[in-house]
Amino acid sequence: QEKSCHLSAALLGEDSEISQDQLYELLKYAALGKCHKAAQPSWCRIYHQSHLAGVVVVVLHEMSQLHFYRFYLQFKHLRKVFQHRFTLAPSANFPVSLYGEGTNLKPQNTSQGLTSSSGECITKSSDLQCDPIIQRYGDKKQGLTSYTLTLEEQKKNDYPIEGSPGCKGYISTECDQQRTDSSPLFGLDCEMCLTAKGNEVTRVSLVDARGQCLLNELVKPESTVVNYRTRFSGITRKMLLPVKTRLSDIQTKLKKMLPHDAVLVGHSLNSDLQALEMIHPSVIDTSLLFARSEGRRFKLKFLAKAVLGKEIQCEQKLGHDPTEDARAALELAQFFIEQGPTKVAELNLEMLLTAEKLAEVSQNKAVLQPQGCGFQEQLNEPPPLSKPCFLDCLQVTGQKPLLLGRQGLDSSGLCQSNPSTSNKQILQRALEDVPLSKFSIIQFSLGPEYLASHLHAGLYEKVRSKLTDMLTIYAGPFEENFCMKSVKKEFGRCGPIQSLTVVTETFQPYVCIQYEVLEAAQLAVESLNGAEVAGSCIKVQRPVTAGMLDCNVLIKELELDVENEGVIYVAGLKKSLTETDLQEEFSHLKDLETLFLPKDLQSGKHRNCCFLKFQKTQSAVDALEALNGWTMKGSELRSRNALAPGHLWRWIWQMNHSNGKQGKHIFYEKMEQLSDSEQDLKKKVKKLDHHIKKLYRSLQNNTLCVVLFPGVNSTHGSQSGLGLMGIKDDEGRSAC
């Protein structure tokens, strides 16, 4: 059965602002996997990358986050399908930020995609036959059972074996079921200290096939410790003092945790099993898997860096992290199984190790130089290398990248511009060619008449004006000498207030309150309309303007936004509470995944509200019921479903504090022009959304799809971009 890929990303608050480098990091890993030193992106994780059917990037030329939220209701498909959304910093050279530069590819007609070029990215096949990995495993990809150690190999490498003289009293994991290529993998690593008895376990870590930590526990040795080996183990006497767990407890836990067909993975795993005094019949040892000549072995630290692109066992840390090591060994085994021996041999690990050692020698020489000797060398150093184009590597492996679009994709000489091509023609070509390509970039455009930079100022002002109206409520009427402090306190329980003013144009006083978050304004309308505040029964409403006539529709659609699934807003918090305090206070809530505590971007002070993201939608519903009216540290909480997706916090704050300064000198001149074309623009956007829907539906399952509004950099100001992403699943929706 085909493995399904999925994507995880905790994109809330400041974590949802993604740089161009981070976007490049994602696309490079999605395109190449762990080959060519492509590492898992730091801000999200792709599971089973090798099973991706392809990568499709849709670029909406010269459109920004502003366009998406101005025409939010028109982008019906985009907002309902993609589960992950992030703000994107605008780039001066967007194509380069996508796939790098310095490509050797030669441009061809867009309809043909791109031709292969000769390159030396990969070791020649004639050299591979001499590689120890190929000699041991052959050149064909095989299932995991082909890489487990035989009984003879276990004996030869000092693994604990049932009935062996040195294994008297050892405990069996009792995992005696026959292994298949779909048996589950578990990463295991232990840290040991030296005792009067010999090596004894002081810490044990076990991770599952997804890299999730199942066990990470300190263990008290039976004998007196002679040497804690802190430099390597990270264990100190102080750490072990309160520990009650003994080796027998860990043995029992491991027996319960491991299914009967479990395959254990580790680096020199024999040492770990000897220290655990446990016998397990099926193991993959990564120190032997990545075979070398003459019985030598690669260190785990080197393999993690060379194969996975990960730095582990860093010198800054005190000792090794067994969970990190267990996860690294597991991912190395998964890489080997998924990619096969040929791909691993092509990495040319021996050459990489030699290069690393030479670099270390060179660095040591530089350190030993007298002070001041290296100045001239620094002057003669070449400038730092530009970001390499990973499409080159795709070409060399025989995978043709596809680039289709009207303009803007040719800055690296990758394809020819064709300004006469319409979105409909581009879509038709994409439907034909995308299934034949592993990596595709498809660019759509609204057309030059809608993308003039001076129109962005008017568009910005319209969005800012509507947002201000949605953040604003009017409350009243109040008595002549009402207590403003009471009003501020009551409405402040709904969320952070930006401004509060008294309206004097009315017969009786009203109060105008502008909030910092949409949820606060909506909460005030829902909970305080008809309530008694400061001695008066008041009405709470939003401003009545032309732009607000569809406010209720917009609020409803925002609540249903896929990015808000499982996210709730909580207000009424004391500002003195820290994120750690809140984690503790909310620890009883089931399936709580992430907590985001917004802060003022100028002062850095926390606001009196937070957002909670849950793994399951039902858990969010239950939490909402539990928290409404709940008292925390003497303060009554109010909560509701989230309205603004996590990435919007900073953008709303900045727009809310701009006071319309951006492009205001152009706004009045161009607003009439914008209004005349806006109905046409809405139709264009709706059609564009339909094109993307049609393209998305044609994609194979397990295809990573990323839709990018690149943002705008112009003399009239810059606008942040927006990214939407997901992996298509069986139901045609993006898998989270």
UniProtKB/TrEMBL annotation:
| Any one of the GO CC terms | nucleus
SMART domains, per this entry? EXOIII, RRM
What keyword terms does UniProt attach to this protein? Exonuclease, Hydrolase, Nuclease, RNA-binding
* Lineage top rank: taxon: Eukaryota
**Domain RRM span(s) in chain numbering:** 471-545, 566-644
> GO terms for molecular function, please?
exonuclease activity; RNA binding
InterPro entries named in the record: Nucleotide-bd_a/b_plait_sf (IPR012677), RBD_domain_sf (IPR035979), REX1-like_exo (IPR034922), REXO1/3/4-like (IPR047021), Ribonucl_H (IPR013520), RNaseH-like_sf (IPR012337), RNaseH_sf (IPR036397), RRM_dom (IPR000504)
Tell me where the transmembrane regions lie. none
Which CDD domains did the record assign? REX1_like (cd06145), RRM1_NEFsp (cd12273)
Gene3D superfamilies given for it? Answer: 3.30.70.330, Ribonuclease H-like superfamily/Ribonuclease H (3.30.420.10)
Q: What protein is this chain from?
A: REXO5 exonuclease
> In its keyword annotation, does this UniProt entry include Acetylation?
no
Q: Which Pfam family, just one, is annotated for this protein?
A: RNase_T
